[in-house]
Amino acid sequence: MKIIIDYSKYLVIVILGCSLLTTWYGTETEVINVLPTYHSSETANSRSGESVWHSMRRQFKLDTKPESARVQAEIRKMLADGRLNQILKAAIPYIYFIHKQTEARGLPAELALIPVIESEFNPFDRSRVGATGLWQLMSVTAGELGVKVRSGYDGRRNVTASTKAALAYFNDLGHLFKGNWYLAIAAYNCGQVRVQSAIRKSGNHSFWGLPLPQETKYYVPRLLAVVEIIKHPERYGVTLPPVNNKPYFEPVAVSKPANLEQVAKTSGVSIETLQKLNPDYARGSKPKAEAKTILVPVNKAPVIKATLLK
After folding, report:
1. For each of the chain's 310 residues, which pLDDT tens digit applies?
2. Every domain of the chain and the residues it spans
3. Helical ranges in the chain per DSSP H
4. Do 226 and 116 touch, CB atoms closer than 8 A?
5. Domain 41-236, CATH
């Protein structure tokens, strides 16, 4: 009988403990993944036959707040102009790589969709203020993150270098804002100093109540709208483009500047595909100082390797 009574006591304690934890964490919906968890390469392996969208959905961490008027307004805009489908098709060569980079760093999978609202997944994009590439990095920020920007070469257009740099920045922002990813994402758009200043002035730590620039007030809801649609495409009448959960491209080492047009002719890969994968190549060839790799479709890598080694 004593054993049964003692067991009942522990059971009550466990239940009360779970209730307290639920109450505690339920009060702070914005703090998610305070410190990123780094994964081994084994956890990044693709599941057979799975799409990259399924893989991303399993790792989404943010509340998309679909009931928010601001998020709903952004969803309506995306569905009305029909551009989202075109943007997601443009993402096909890059999205697997970017998703796996967020996964390896323990970052929210939602961050892989930042280029949807930054550049529409156009690596050649350049804003009126000079932000460039998939992630729309400014030259000063790029330099601080180790991305080379010099005469004749702009590493912000390099798909792998810019992605790693942008995610390193997000990792820093995530730590700075103690896992509040709404604030971290806002800071990516308008700068961490401005977000910190808005917090100090208002005494508010919630993105939704901060006096931020109008563009930033739209920026976070726009990303959440994209995530919400990808989470529930059938709910919004959207068909996501098929993207296998496996590598689209492979880096091939080069010892000298590679001419993309020549590579296209000898490999059978279209010049358009090679340019999309290597947007940092100037006029078809890369300056010697930067000639380290060329990104090529996985299925054509053996042919191109053989060609470049001749």
Report:
1. 333 334 344 344 434 444 433 433 333 345 444 445 444 333 444 455 789 999 999 999 999 999 999 999 999 999 998 899 999 999 999 999 999 999 999 999 999 999 999 999 999 999 999 999 999 999 999 999 999 988 888 999 999 999 999 999 999 999 999 999 999 999 999 999 999 999 999 999 999 999 999 999 999 999 999 999 999 999 999 999 999 999 999 999 887 778 899 899 989 999 999 999 999 986 667 766 676 889 999 999 999 988 876 6
2. 1-29, 41-236, 249-308
3. 2-26, 52-59, 69-81, 83-90, 95-105, 114-118, 139-144, 159-176, 181-190, 192-202, 214-231, 260-267, 271-277, 301-308
4. yes
5. 1.10.530.10
In the chain, the amino acid numbered 193 is: V
User: Is 144 labeled as catalytic in the residue annotation?
Assistant: no
Query: Side chain identity at 184, as an amino acid letter?
Result: A
Rounded to two decimals, the pTM is: 0.84
User: Catalytic: which of 30, 118, 228, 290?
Assistant: 118
Helix (H, G, I), strand (E, B), or coil: what is residue 295?
strand
227 Cβ contact partners less than 8 Å away, ≥ 6 residues apart:
60, 62, 64, 110, 113
